[in-house]
Amino acid sequence: MKIKLKSIHPELRSRGKVIRWIFKLFRNEKTFYKVQRMVLKYRNRMENDNLNLTEKYIHTDANENLRICIYESKNPKPKAIGLLWMHGGGYAIGTPEQDSKFLEQLINAENVVVISPDYRLSIDAPYPAAFDDCYNSLLWMKEHAEELGIDSDKLFVGGSSAGGGLAVALSLKARDENSVKIAYLMPMYPMLNDRMDSESAIDNDAPVWNSKLNTAAWRLYLGDLYQTEDVPTYASPARETNYSNLPPIYTFVGDLEPFHDEVVTYINKLRLTGIEAELDVYQGCYHAFDTVDSKKPISVQAIQKYLESFQYAAKHYKQSQD
């Protein structure tokens, strides 16, 4: 799906043109390694002094040194929502700190404690490393809810892009294992389909995230599983066939990005099964438009609707862990 400049929303067109030019410098998977070095170099500059940040290191069977960032208000209140939040970056790059400004908006909107794992990236270890780290973080959040000031009946899971894909995948395993009752799922434009066989994912040259980047990211994440029929649904949730007993969900996606079709398809399958599933599609918008051009009215609109859905869920959704 070739994206013409005139197809991009007028508010995003100028920034999109520049970003598209910059991303032409991407050549192959090695680019992810270079980008991650830059992310780590400037990670301290992403910190948010408006929030309390506590770092913990937990030990799991899969990872002996998993760093978890705990974000909360400067004036924390008891019985908070527990939100497990995964950063994006195509499973290959990123750090929890990159979302701290956005997490501030969530924390200002509701009484919430955010748990954000610094999960292993595909440039260091392919699937299931990231998934295992995030699943163990979910279990840890549940087990330590009381000391974290979290209401265990209100465990939410969210993330952006690849982090959204991880959120969806976690909801599948939590259901299958009957381990954690997730009250609400709130991914942003999740990365769900390794097959990349939908119209929006084929030959997409949109700004920020395109088919070339998507292919390289899935190849890194899946490793030897790439382009096989052995890919598990926890790696690529679009392969799931059982959509029952999953938590209510809200998400949004731009109609120009590679993930558009797979997100729409997934939400429709949930709806057909009777799951409460809400989706907003923003016309003329590319991947992560709300982040890369955050002050534009269309971006403000998308985030405001997301926050409203979060606030509604905070008042209406809970799941007992018993």
Tell me about this structure:
This protein is α/β, with parallel strands linked by helices. The protein has a single domain, classed as 3-Layer(aba) Sandwich (Rossmann fold). 37% of the residues lie in helices and 17% in strands. It has 10 helices and 8 strands. The protein starts with 9 loop residues before the first helix and ends in a 6-residue tail after the last helix. The mean pLDDT is 95.
Topology:
Elements: H1 10-22, H2 30-41, E1 52-58, E2 66-72, E3 80-86, H3 100-109, E4 112-117, H4 129-143, H5 145-148, E5 150-160, H6 162-177, E6 184-188, H7 211-222, E7 249-254, H8 260-273, E8 277-282, H9 289-292, H10 297-316
Parallel strand pairs: 3-4, 3-5, 5-6, 7-8
Antiparallel strand pairs: 1-2, 2-4
Helix pairs in contact: 4-6
CATH architecture: 3-Layer(aba) Sandwich
**Overall residue-averaged pLDDT value:** 95
Order of helices and strands: HHEEEHEHHEHEHEHEHH
| Low-confidence blocks of residues | none
Based on Cα principal axes, name the global outline.
globular
- The domain tally reads 1
Structural class: alpha/beta
If you compute it from the alpha carbons, what radius of gyration comes out, rounded to the nearest whole angstrom?
18 Å
The neighbouring-strand order within the major sheet is: 1-2-4-3-5-6
